[in-house]
Task: inverse folding
């Protein structure tokens, strides 16, 4: 009996190991694909790369004449000089106003849009509010309204609207707590990009695309089928509209055969209007980052949804605490029993 049980367990372990190995291999291939699509210094004009490196080394403002960026032969395949922010004022107001939810989550805007205007005087900078956002959907994507209006967490509406506004107009999307540090013109020279998330996938707090980009189209079309309720707010937001959704869409794009096309020589000179790239950490969050962090605007984060959800369900914290200590208790009990058995012998 014990023997057969052991064999079943071994088989199960083997199957689990094979599945994990397969998933890890797929993830590894996807990650290396994302790295091969990195925007690098070689994608900028040499003079610009040198000026950027020099200004970073000396910590001085970057001096560069952006008019020298090669004029595009086909501007419609490139990212337009537009920045979109989304600010749904008092997103959680109806919950925060309840007397049993004393909270001080800020509801002022952030200085991020102003900083972006200062560094990009030739750009159009839009800050979308809830009314204007719903109006755009009503006018052009009314098929999505039932999903949009019924999202459980308001932040899902912000996430979903990002993809619609980027499909509709194109440009650079930035969360309210992401700020500009210098001109974004060097980052407009491709049909689109997502920043690389560490360790896996891509982020959705900042991304760029030409108007009508194929990935954006796929994303808006698949939001409805991803509207899952995974019980916990963070997990639900992450998978239905957030970074996991964005990463899965990029991966889907990759598995549809795009990767094969680009792997042939890893050429970035392709003029394909639906090509996309990845923004490496060095330009996204590290040494040569184009972006900074602007305080304020974080009110709309997933953390608010999580906090509010937990305030209504304090017992979940108890359960989580119990669940996290259980393995230690079991090990401790086993060890005690083991010691007792040793003594018996
Ligand atoms: C929302 O944005 C629109 C368009 O920018 C503007 O006309 C309107 O006044 C804004 N509404 C609120 C409540 O701020």
Result:
């Amino acid at each position: 009996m014990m023997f057969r049980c052991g064999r079943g367990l071994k088989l199960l372990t083997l199957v689990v190991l094979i599945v994990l190995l397969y998933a890890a291999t797929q993830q590894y291939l996807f990650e290396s694909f994302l790295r091969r699509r990195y925007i690098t210094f070689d994608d900028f004009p040499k003079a610009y790369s040198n000026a950027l490196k020099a200004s970073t080394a000396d910590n001085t403002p970057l001096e560069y004449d952006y008019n020298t960026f090669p004029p595009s032969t086909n501007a419609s395949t490139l990212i337009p000089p537009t920045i979109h922010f989304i600010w749904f004022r008092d997103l959680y107001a109806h919950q925060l106003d309840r007397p049993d939810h004393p909270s001080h989550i800020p509801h002022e805007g952030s200085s991020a849009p102003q900083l972006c205007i200062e560094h990009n005087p030739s750009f159009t900078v839009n800050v979308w509010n809830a009314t204007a956002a719903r109006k755009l959907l009503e006018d052009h994507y009314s098929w999505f309204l039932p999903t949009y209006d019924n999202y459980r967490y308001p932040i899902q509406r912000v996430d979903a609207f990002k993809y619609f506004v980027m499909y509709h107009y194109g440009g650079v999307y930035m969360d309210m707590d992401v700020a500009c540090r210098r001109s974004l013109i060097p980052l407009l020279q491709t049909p689109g990009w997502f920043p690389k998330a560490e360790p896996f996938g891509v982020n959705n707090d900042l991304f760029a695309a030409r108007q009508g980009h194929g990935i954006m189209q796929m994303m808006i079309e698949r939001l409805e089928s991803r509207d899952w309720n995974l019980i916990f707010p963070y997990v639900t937001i992450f998978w239905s509209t957030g970074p996991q959704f964005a990463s899965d869409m990029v991966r889907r794009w990759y598995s549809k055969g795009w990767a094969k096309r680009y792997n042939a020589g890893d050429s970035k000179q392709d003029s394909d209007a639906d090509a996309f790239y990845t923004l490496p950490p060095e330009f996204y969050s590290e040494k040569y980052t184009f972006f900074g962090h602007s305080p304020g605007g974080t009110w709309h984060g997933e953390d608010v949804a999580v906090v509010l959800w937990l305030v209504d369900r304090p017992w979940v914290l108890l359960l989580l605490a119990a669940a996290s200590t259980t393995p230690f208790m079991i090990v401790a009990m086993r060890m005690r029993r083991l010691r007792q058995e040793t003594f018996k012998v």
Observations:
- The beta strands are 82-86, 124-128, 171-174, 178-180, 192-195, 206-209, 277-279, 291-293.
- The chain has one domain: 68-310.
- Residues 262-271 have pLDDT under 50 and may be disordered.
